[in-house]
Amino acid sequence: MRVAVLGAGVIGLSVAWRCARRGMEVTVHDPAPARAAANVAAGMLAPVTELHAGEEALLALNLESARRWPSFAAELAGDAGCDPGYVTCGTVAVARDLDDLRVLDDLHAQQVGLGLQVERLSGREVRRREPALAPSARGGLFVGGDHQVDNRRLLSALRRAAGARAVGMVTTSPEDPPAMRALDADAVVVAAGWRSPALVPGLAVRPVKGQVLRLRSDGRSVLPAHVVRGLDVYVVPRGDEVVVGATVEDVGEDLTVRAGAVHDLLHDAADLVPGVAEAELVECGVGLRPATPDNAPLIGALDERTVVATGHYRNGILLAPVTADAVAELLVSGEAPDVVAPFRPERPAVRR
Ligand code: GLY
Question: In this structure, which residue's CA is closest to atom 5 in ligand 1?
């Protein structure tokens, strides 16, 4: 089977690589791979810490994908011949004041109610667990199973692994439905993130802007060993750097870095982790997440030839393993696996 994958972001590359491993002849089309949202992402793999009330179906998918991450990363390392940067560091969620603590206690109650693994920590305990935290930390949660992956190493490993499995990469891509129909392929996988509606009109995906910073330690600033989550900001350790994010702005296709956003991110991050203020600011980035009306991805067949894998919003990196395996299975067997059944692209919740 000849498969055209439209989009060289984390979803498109993962789908391409997994399909190629299953014997398909795959070509990835993307005129601008550098604009993939995953280039800017922090790479958190945090289904428990990022639990949202009312999103239990998505939680199940997130947990299933987190479960697959260790084998996905190991197989990727094997095919790519390089380390994709999967780090099992755990995550601390931190309350800076009593209001934060109430929010964390609600989150904790939901997590426990769903049977998730989480520890409630006092202020002293959370500071002992993560010494880079400010002395003012009032309490927190520790989730030993929420991890992270280096987003840029991951993309580079996926490109190498795809190459090792003879996936073709082309820098042209159809820009509209007629051009997509004209592609010489048995199956087309639309994984073009927020741009996907240009290829599949009516697909309910829109861009949601996220501004993200990178800071580097000169060795004097104390940066965290765990992923640190505040209520409005996260700080993700990445070697001698940290990634600080992120704004969530429903403002359309806007790639501007705003001074106010940088100020707020730095202020909130340094409040949690004072060492951030001592670090060198090395990058201010912007990414556009592909969001859907119910915050869950669109994974499934639209017709006999077209499959959609987009709309992963804040969970694209986390959901890459389960999405890629589901698309490969769908293409091989004609049936999407049960795990993605609630996320079919034509479900009522995402119809426009
Ligand atoms: N998952 C992190 C973000 O979307 O900012």
Answer: 246
Amino acid at 263: H
- Which of 10, 44, 194, 214 has the most ligand 1 atoms within 8 A of CB, as the residue to mutate? 44
pTM above threshold 0.85: yes
Angle at 149 between CA 222 and CA 120, to 5 degrees: 65
* Domains present along the chain, CATH in parentheses: 2-84+149-205+293-350 (3.50.50.60), 91-143+206-291 (3.30.9.10)
**Residue whose CA is closest, atom 4 of ligand 1?**
314
∠ CA 243-28-1, nearest 5°, is 135
Chain segment 299-318, per-residue pLDDT in tens: 999 999 999 999 999 999 99
CA–CA separation, 120 vs 110, rounded Å? 12
Q: What is the pLDDT of residues 144-202, one digit of tens each?
A: 999 999 999 999 999 999 999 999 999 999 999 999 999 999 999 999 999 999 999 99
Cα(9) to centroid of ligand 1, in Å? 15
